[in-house]
């Protein structure tokens, strides 16, 4: 028997009067994935998350989490998901331990087990030394860790994260990245919404890009990179000790070269799609007495992919 997808949407739509915040999006996220959900501000990311977490009812279409309908079976969905919002609200006068026990009570975890799980979560999130400290004394990073702990205290199958590392310093971001990977290895499916494209590129196996309520692309980063690179010219950057006009002109005459420009000690060459002229460029420069220090051919990174999809306006 084939396992149900972790998350599945079919024509998921949310309208607020004349505004269509999410417009008929359909996507499938398999169990065990780390899925990145990207889009500019106002694209519909948070509205989608609110429907997946049963906070908001869709206008039409369906959303399923672990095979359970978010509209018809909200309690079953809530039992299986953990949700960390971009800004978590806590009672400032409660301690970290009391806060986690408070969240554990939502999931009917027995009292004795609540204490044990709260202690485990605080240790795992590096908050053990602050178990009895009031939350109002916590830094932003500590609050983010506490929010993460509260989202996983009931051991969910699916973890939905909305900007988990926003405003954090590099060590904290590195810590959260490792924690997400650990949970994923333990079998938890991760749905990660973030503006930090470098983090998404490092950690996610597939991504979805939404803009103006429309799902523009869903695929692996490599597949999207190949699609973007096949539709644009290639750029080669050559680091040199010095450049002469004669050498630059010789490179311009190479078949497949679209343009050549110099920037200080760099020669930037644009090639036609599919051109294999890189070795010819290197040889031409050497024959013209140019000492090459470096040669790089830029691939599309996630920022390039994101902008191409958003600006392209289609799949």
Notes on the protein architecture:
By secondary structure, the chain is an alpha/beta fold. It folds into 2 domains: 7-227, 3-Layer(aba) Sandwich (Rossmann fold); 233-299, Protein-tyrosine phosphatase receptor IA-2 ectodomain (Alpha-Beta Plaits, 2-Layer Sandwich), CATH 3.30.70.2470. Helices cover 37% and strands 28% of the residues. It contains 11 helices and 14 strands. It has helices at 45-52, 74-80, 96-106, 111-124, 140-152, 170-185, 197-203, 221-230, 245-252, 278-287, 302-312; strands spanning 7-16, 19-29, 34-38, 60-65, 68-69, 81-84, 158-162, 189-193, 206-211, 214-220, 234-240, 257-263, 266-271, 292-297. The strands form 3 sheets. Strands 6-7-8-3-9-10 form a 6-stranded mixed β-sheet, with helices on both faces. The protein has a 4-stranded antiparallel β-sheet with strand order 2-1-4-5, with helices on one face. A hairpin with a 2-residue loop joins strand 9 and strand 10 (214-220). Helix 3 (96-106) runs parallel beside helix 5 (140-152) and helix 4 packs across helix 5 (140-152). It starts with 6 loop residues before the first strand and ends with a helix. The model has no long low-confidence stretch (mean pLDDT 91).
Describe the protein's topology.
Elements: E1 7-16, E2 19-29, E3 34-38, H1 45-52, E4 60-65, E5 68-69, H2 74-80, E6 81-84, H3 96-106, H4 111-124, H5 140-152, E7 158-162, H6 170-185, E8 189-193, H7 197-203, E9 206-211, E10 214-220, H8 221-230, E11 234-240, H9 245-252, E12 257-263, E13 266-271, H10 278-287, E14 292-297, H11 302-312
Parallel strand pairs: 3-8, 3-9, 6-7, 7-8
Antiparallel strand pairs: 1-2, 1-4, 4-5, 9-10, 11-13, 11-14, 12-13
